[in-house]
Amino acid sequence: CALPIHLKNNIDKTSLIDGVKELLDFLHGKYVLVIATGSSRIIVEKTLSYNDLSYYFNFIVAGEDFKNSKA
Question: Using CA atoms, how far apart are residues 37 and 48, in angstroms rounded to an integer?
């Protein structure tokens, strides 16, 4: 699946909310961290990767994982 053009052109404009990495550092290893989203998996994976957050999450459940998704 190719990266959507709007993400390819704007991923460098994403930014994290202050304290997110510190919170993830605190939670990681204590809890199973999961992202559940109606967005496509490729967008989530690329966004996490760009922001160096992939390491924190055990699972991603994306819209295309379900036959009757909202997306």
Answer: 13
